[in-house]
Amino acid sequence: MAMPAKPIIPSSTNSEGKNPLFVKDRDDIFIQKKSSSSSNDSESSKPSNGFRTSVYKHFESNMHVVMCRTTSPVFTLNIYVPTAAPNNKGLPHTLEHLVFCGSKRYPIRGYIDTLASYNYSVGTNAWTAKDHTCYTLDATAEDGVANVLPPFLDHVLNPLLHNDHFVTEVYHCDETGKEKGVVFGEMESKENNEDILAYYHLNKLVYNSSAAYSKYSGGKTYDIARLTNREIVDYHRKYYDANNITVVLTGAFSDDFEEKYLQTIPAGIVQSRGSDSREPMDFSPPDNSHPRYETVRFPSSDTSTGSFSFGWQGPKHEDVEANIALDVVLEYLAGTSSSPLNLRFVERPSPLARGIKVCTYPNVTTMFNLIFNGVSYTCKDTANQLENGSKDPDLPHLFEERYFESLLIGEFKRLIDTQFDGNKHALEKAAKRLSGKLSAEIEKIPGDALQSIFYPDIVASHFLQESQGSKKLHIGLRASQFDIIADLEKRPVEFWLDLLKKWFIDGTAYHVAMVPDTELGPKLELERRKIEQANAAKIVDKEAHAKRIKKAVDSSTAHVSEEVKEAMPTPDPSKTAILPHKQDLVVLDNAIGPVVAVQSISVDSGFAEAQIQIPIGNITHDQRSYLTLFQELLMETDILLPAGVLFDNSNTPLQTEKRIRYSEFESRISDLVASRYSRFGQRSQLFSCNWLDNIFVVQFKSQCKDYPLALRWMVQGLLFSEFTQDRILTCSQNILASIAAAKRDIIAIASNLVTHFIGASRPGEPLANRRHMSFLAQEGVLKNVIDKTKNGKVDEVIGKLRDIQNMLIRATGGFIALSLPSSETPKPYVDAFAREWNMCYGKYAERNEAGVVSNANANAVAKGGSSPFPIRYNMLFPELTKPLLIHVPVPSLQTSRSLFSYKINEPDCPTGKRGFDDELADLVSLDYFALKMLLALLARIDGPLDNAVRGKGYAYGGNIYIAEWSKRLSLEITRASDIIKAVDAVKQLFLDMHNNWDTIIGDTDVSLARSVIKYRHVIRQSTPAKMLDQSISNSIHGFADADEYNTWYSTHVAAVKISDMRRVFEKYLLPFTDAEYPMFRLLVTTSDVAVPAELGPFEQKTLEEIGATYKADY
């Protein structure tokens, strides 16, 4: 079928303008954004503490538009379609993918995402849940949302649904019989994942077989292979009608947005065909003959740990108070590491689980879950001599039928018998914690937090309409959630005891036991090969088959002509804005402990956040191995307060030494803060660090009224943590269980391998700190720690941990970063830090040998008066004279991943060699920004990189980017079903660009690239937390403030020309086509992948072999 070269832009609106297209459906409502405890009195109920939300209804159909006005500079568009899967073929998921392939009025593949990219966005996206499908756009201009909305609606309501698109996007097998397709490849990588399997099987237990929640909405690969495009067309006809959809908009929309944009949507796009999918759905629980538990095996490289997922059917969606009350109970049970379930199952010398996750699914009939991860499995048959030497009587029996359930129900009963361990205020405190967390979440990601309030109402209104006898959209049921929580705080203990008994003990508990299986991965690979062989045998004319597939691929390739791009509407760039704020940097005349400077921002926030940044540049080699254990133990162990310091909120110094048990400390600090962490490196996770791994960060966020007391506890935790044998043992074993989980995650595997190989030292230099924190390094270290702890050598471990603690306390050259509400000034917060630090440090010095160890960067001095900025950071990267080629096959994986990387030398900030104005005038970062813009162009949705690997069915996607801090240029291919062909396809793309640049990159693409990175630029400064991160980054890079950074950025981006992009392409991307170029190339694959010689002499290694190289470290 020939496709038009241009979109058919509709010109008419509804009914020739006689009636408004959308009419107000009700009075505005206000969605509370913070708890009353962070406001004055009952201020939370006032409109000033709420997001004004308007609801509009289409004048003829039942389509609704919900507009929620926030103060965020990010505008979100979500189109919700209530959908129910009738089987496991993945009908809603496959349709979701096909929607983006073009529509009747915009019949060009790639049009919608190209348009979005021109409108200060990175493109559209979507997700499929069990009861709805949602299509999304984030943009940093309201007219950007307005420009994309009509074409996006047309794609949703009037998609092309071509057979050729089905071939590439959903499923096909090539001439060799290999199964491909974007959806098929995505689900192939997911369907045997431990967590996804557990969720699917738990839903099958909790809901009856006719409910959509019991189906695999994403699609199982066996069933996807039997799906037809005709079924998808019929499914669209049933569910995708204007009658059934709701559009949700959030952001700082202008008052005339509705009149200016909503009323001018072409009427034909949103005209209903008369289809209404509102039909009664049976959400009743299964009958008594239905099983209550199931054991499910999943592929794994080892059998050390499995998991348990428990689920209960909860209240109906509309019973908001009951559902929020259950959220409070879950917060009490497992919301902190000192909560009852964590103390019973996790935080103990012989942990029964690595961690507990609580989930509440806001289904039409809700489901609440308790998930126990990292449950020891290898010791199930060794009752007397367990691998970890423990004598715990429960460990050998955990995976016996319903044994773990008996332990859990027993703990619930104990809590009832003891009336929450005698703490009548326990649930009141849990409610306050929940309120604080919700406030922080709304501030952190307002668009996402608001969607989680709206979409359950949309879905429930749709699927409960028959019983309600109405088609009215009941939106905002949780609009006053903070008032509800405040009321729940006042409930007596009997209320909570009854609630726990009713839902957790008397309610039916279902659970899934997930069992690791080392033989399942190879079995699945063998089955896949048999299917491929059977497919190949059915293809009589392989050449003709290959031609048909190629034709489908070619017709499905995204290509938007220069003419069409030039006609696309674009937003007014002057209307984009970052979050208003004020940034200051003060260098102290006298250092406060490790702090020589204070960087602060004032911003519209309900919280005060502090980050104490302590340099650890001169840490010794043997200390590095203990950094991961140290960061997990700090403030997660006992605190030994010396006489003379203040305890909690008392103003009277302690007369004698006082030990604070770990659980008491953790419980108290959790009541005071919305978040906290202690990590080396910024944006770090347990086994990885994104940037600045030579700085240790102690962070906390609290309401302003709680800041002084929270600060006291955090400072005392840093200076007076005691590393006890029990806590060392518990923490070490839980980290080991996390390593077992990481070895099953291809993203974690690849990340740790990259850290291992490119964090290698140059001659005479130490290993990067981040290399020591990888699970490859930590597994042996932790086993050694456990062995020492159990065999009378725990003092050696404690000594190492204390050495790190002492190094941090006595360090110099650090800084404190503060984010404060606009009404606050930094001085009281800095003075409070000085008081607490000086009091505690004096007692610390009395207890320990006094002295100052300088391990700061060269710019800092202990007495103050000198700024620690800029901090020049160079990530270690091996000096390669030839390619470093590594292939790591992992038997448990179902798809493959590649990462090719090397270091570039382009400044992204002032070099400091001359003045700011002189360097800016010379555009010293021009090539850096030209490369950033080119990469944004290549890696955008439906861009050249997507066409190369995703469109051909080789991989789910790819990305190419510069790591901000290390300046590594990296090319990644993810979820690959054919990693070798995907790598070849990217190589061919770059060769085509070299030979035929003008046919791939057009003149209009410079504007598109500017739009995409402008969006990213605003996103980084769109919330208080992100603004604080950006301000820290600004200072570290040597910028005076955000204005200077933004000037540097905007001047360089505006100066980039297409000739600059071509120059950096030849310089930096063409080397990826050269097999001899000295770069790091990593393949993490399924065990059956053979690397051809033309890719280079890849050295094959196993994870175990690589981990063994760290043996000398322990």
Distance between the termini: 66 Å
Share of helix, binned: 40-55%
**Which structural class do the helices and strands define?**
alpha+beta
Low-pLDDT sequence parts: 39-45, 381-388, 850-864
Explained architecture:
- It is a single chain.
- Helices cover 41% and strands 18% of the residues.
- By secondary structure, the chain is α+β, with helices and mostly antiparallel strands.
- The strands form six sheets. Strands 1, 2, 3, 4, 5, 6, 7 and 10 form an eight-stranded mixed β-sheet that branches.
- The longest helix has 22 residues, at 826-847.
- The chain starts with 21 loop residues before the first strand and ends in a 6-residue tail after the last helix.
- Residues 39-45, 381-388 and 850-864 have low confidence and may be disordered.
Key terms:
single chain, 1114 residues, alpha+beta, 40 helices, globular, eight-stranded mixed β-sheet
Summary, kept brief:
It contains 40 helices and 30 strands. By secondary structure, the chain is an alpha+beta fold.
Describe the secondary structure blueprint for this structure:
Layout: E1 22-24, E2 29-32, E3 50-58, E4 64-69, E5 75-82, H1 91-98, H2 111-118, E6 124-128, E7 132-139, H3 142-157, H4 163-169, E8 172-173, E9 179-180, H5 182-190, H6 194-206, H7 221-224, H8 229-239, E10 246-251, H9 257-260, E11 293-299, E12 305-316, H10 320-334, H11 340-345, E13 355-361, E14 365-376, H12 403-417, H13 426-444, H14 446-463, H15 465-468, H16 481-488, H17 493-505, E15 510-517, H18 520-538, H19 542-556, H20 562-567, E16 581-592, E17 595-603, E18 608-615, H21 621-624, H22 627-633, E19 638-641, E20 658-660, H23 662-672, E21 675-682, E22 691-702, H24 707-720, E23 721-722, H25 725-742, H26 746-758, H27 769-773, H28 775-790, H29 794-809, E24 814-821, H30 826-847, E25 884-889, E26 896-903, H31 916-921, H32 926-939, H33 944-949, E27 955-962, E28 968-976, H34 979-995, H35 997-1000, H36 1005-1019, H37 1024-1037, H38 1042-1055, H39 1058-1069, E29 1080-1085, E30 1099-1100, H40 1103-1108
Parallel strand pairs: 4-10, 11-15, 17-24, 25-29, 25-30
Antiparallel strand pairs: 1-3, 2-3, 3-4, 5-7, 5-10, 6-7, 8-9, 12-14, 12-15, 13-14, 16-17, 18-22, 18-24, 19-20, 19-23, 21-22, 26-28, 26-29, 27-28
Helix pairs in contact: 1-8, 2-3, 4-19, 10-13, 10-16, 12-17, 13-14, 13-16, 24-30, 25-28, 28-29, 32-36, 32-38, 32-39
